[in-house]
């Protein structure tokens, strides 16, 4: 079978993030490994999911634990991966077969790169703003530029993520409301991910990744929201992960690409169900693709049972 694992990004906030793993000893054991590498108990710090110093580590740990827990069920099948924002880092770590220590080091380093902006400018507040409406991409880019913001993610045909200083985003929001906007939400990320605010840090994440990984090929091909194709080469993906810190991501086009490949099964690892919603928004026809949205399950046993029902033994 052709299987795709999709990893969500930051912005999900649930103090019971790890409840899915409560009854699974293998998952809890791996989560303990990650906690040891992080130097604090991940399980007991989910209340800090809106803290930019902790959010990426918590979400990354959830995704890596979940992927590790289901990996044996997928071992005899073609498995590709795709990740939205932070989720692409998790997808990369899975594809590169990163150790728990290297995984935490990578997510921790990315966290420090991104929080360095707010720590060097403590008088400023930053965030991401999600807006929905029938905007042309160039139109929304012009409005962003006018108010010193930047388009961070093209999420779907009508959903866009904008990054910038909070004071500028509020003024930008007023202008968008006079155009085609139907909904808006501040994501409480506290960092302007995927915008030129991080341009001065170009090449730093790549150099760190290069110090950690020496193999040439990814174990699982990855979809890139910058290159808009499958990536097989680890070096190429590391460069892309660096560029994505300060470049607009085109997730809308990635969704169309994923649909074109006609997977037998897509597993939305989450957290949350946003990736399933965005995929369905992009789909005219999902053909014969089954979708498992992990957020719909209350236990890891339920997720595993559903996978077993779909994948031939």
TrEMBL record:
Protein name per the record: Putative malonyl-CoA acyl-carrier-protein transacylase
GO biological process, one term: fatty acid biosynthetic process
Lineage: Bacteria, Pseudomonadati, Pseudomonadota, Gammaproteobacteria, Legionellales
SMART domains given in the database record: PKS_AT (SM00827)
Coiled-coil residues: none
Residue ranges of every copy of the Malonyl-CoA:ACP transacylase (MAT) domain listed in the record: 6-302
GO molecular function terms attached to this record: [acyl-carrier-protein] S-malonyltransferase activity
GO CC annotation: cytosol
